[in-house]
Model the fold of this input.
Amino acid sequence: MAYGKESVEKARKVIQAISEGGMLKPACAEVKMGVRTFAEVVAGDSEMALLYRRAQECRADLDADEIVDISERDIDPQRARNMIDARKWRASKQHARVYGDRIDLNVQGTVNIAETLSMARARLVPRADQQVMDAEVIEPDTLSTAEVKVDDIFS
Done:
């Protein structure tokens, strides 16, 4: 659904308020625009979506700056801790690349196929009720000792 110029201008004002540290719901109320309408306007325009994302990142930066201010205030320690935790959480969600938890999933290693096959053969014991067929046995030392390198898919 296409929205008019007035809705787009209101959405821009909301985005501006968010980039200055404001919250979504009060910013929408100030320009008399519903939160759902704002979300639809942003979803319908890729430039607007990019501006909104940047505004959220700016607000996350402001939250991080405010954490230092809160820690220096002379207030109840538990209240300060709650205020700091709330800002840390919001910053980590809105600008995860900078403030989020870094999870490293890089796996590096090699696999020696010949050794793995040798270990599998050592575990292979025929049971009494099995018929053993003649088969060609290839000894591990005649197998290629090529190693498979696992690439780092996250780089």
Observations:
- Strands lie at 110-112, 147-149.
